[in-house]
Fold:
Amino acid sequence: MTISVRDVGEAKVVDVSGDVDLGTSGDLRRTLFTTLPLTYTLALNLQAIRYIDSSGIATLIEVLSDSQRLKKNFVLFGLSSAIEEVFRLTHVIRIFRIVQTEQEAVGGA
Amino acid sequence: MSPAIGGLIMRFVMPSDTRYLPVVRGATSALAAAIGWEESECRVIALAVDEAIANVIRHAYHNRSDGVIELECREIPEGLEVTMLDTGDAVDRAKICAREVGSDQPGGLGTHIIRDVMDSVTYQASPSGNRFVATKLIRKKT
Structure:
């Protein structure tokens, strides 16, 4: 798994690629929790993710919870049908703000 | 764990190390495809097996990588049977219980996936270790 962070206007976009599982989700968690305080809009690009398991989904739930506490905007984009299936299996898809494109994710940032 | 005559069978004896997760996912998905599932079903079967192993690593071995996990995936007339053995701590079922649908809490997601994907799941603890058995039925085209 590789992770990088870039600025798009006022927003931060985190690009992730590869597999997010029990062995790698800790790195994603650290990056997201480090980046969240630095921006109002944190957009997570999942387009290059090949795989995500429940530890990855749990990480995203934790970040979402923290973003709500801090009144920040945490948004996901670029979900493939395979990744969306994991969200569907865990019944959490409705708790996230999920959009199709980066433009929508950072909208006006 | 005895071999199934004529059926496909795959066995791993591996350390409780997360680096084996992608290895097992790839092999499980390929085995499921060989048995006859479509690609999307192979993905979720591999996901369920991954979640079962991850539960053992986290809860039985407390993230230690020096435990031993034995995994057997075998074709049965009805589909696939997955058996996993470990010698870690007996798992408190309450800690890995399936979550409520729609919950916004992060715990219990893996167990929820396993139960959702597989058709039967049993856990058994004994003095010699923990045993997980799950089956997935295949709907053959008629």
Strands of chain B lie at 9-15, 68-76, 79-86, 120-126, 129-137.
